[in-house]
Here is the input.
Amino acid sequence: MEQTAILPPGPKGLPRIGNALQFQRNPLRFIRETQQTYGRMATIYIGKQPLVLFFQPEHIRYILTENQRNFVKPNRGGGANLRYLLGDGLLTIDGDFHRQQRRLVQPAFHKRRVERYADIMVQLTEEMLAQWQQGSTINIAQAMQQLTLSIIAKSLFNVDSPPLIAELGIAFNDVINNGRSITSRRMLRINLPFTRYGKTVAGKRTLDEFVYNLIAERRQDESDAGDVLSMLLHAQEEGETLTDKQVHDHVLTFVAAGHETAQNTLSWTFYQLSQHPDKRDKLLNELQTVLAGRDPTVADLANLPYLEWVINESWRILPPVWIQGRRAVSDFELDGYHFPAGTIGMISQWVTHNLPDIWGDPEAFRPERWDPVNGQKVPQWAYFPFGGGSRICIGMPFAEMETKLLLATILQHYAPRLVPGFPVVPKPRVTLRPKYGMRMILEPVKAPAAMSVS
Here is the structure.
């Protein structure tokens, strides 16, 4: 007889739609409250489809590393949205194809190659700072998007065009903010410029044209520009070169993931430092001690531990990637439950990074918890901002270096302060964005003698 699966308990839903409304209205609050009520794991229903939420570090380890080949990307919901935007890039493909494609593009993100981009990162940041004015108010989220898009375009594809970067930023916002219109049956798919669906389609068209035009120009030129695009066009795996479609999908994935993670990290980190001036002043003091006003280099990063702790703590509290889904290929047993093949499991950095029984005071922004000597002892897999296993973000070294260099460069000129009363609300889409942007006042950095070193 076939074994009957008894799934973990979870919040009661409504007939036919299950927990869909609860999840849609406020997914961040809903999954946290579900964990608080049901503990280690819980089952919710989106329509008739059960989703099992796994919350514990040992669950993360089991899914991402111990049995990673049994868990593939789901092809519905958010997975379908990503595939629509990115095609068959590393974020959406699975199995042997994923392993083969990852081997092919891995050289683009080797440590030495990534470090060559450091000068570009700092230079473009300084060019942005030259346009800023002391005391002015800016949308720091928008500014960080433009900066990180410029860095990705210049570093990986040798593209340097502010008007084009601005157009790409608008296109990405249209696709990400309206992406649900592609897969949601409740959305009217009317392709007019003012509809959500129409904005998604138009944004996607802009991004596709940008990438395919790049590819066509390079194919015609046939030269090797020494950047990632050239590497992809000349790459071979078992005698096979990449098609234009495959190059397009990889390029778009790098552009999307590369700027989205960094822009959100910087926005949330500036917010946290604005809310915690004692931590900001401690970081400013470290930057002044090590750099004394000069631009940071890769070699300096090893001497800036508090900078790393600040970013780690920002990733913990407000992780750019807040949830991930996996579909089980075969049956599996976990925590006393039998889960059948096809089970959709969800793991959430938003929840696990903030479990009180692990972190003690998860709501507190406390970079000192990352001090390897006197800090908090964190269980393995309680913290996984870039995922893990064979699918760990390939651009992690790029993102880690970029966020440190940009933060160190900007904070030596300005200490952005949140506009009083400005609403800061996390908006969960593919990533965790500030819903209304982030309006901040560009305050000058105080002289070292006035800094607190608490």
Notes: The chain is about 50% helix and 10% strand.
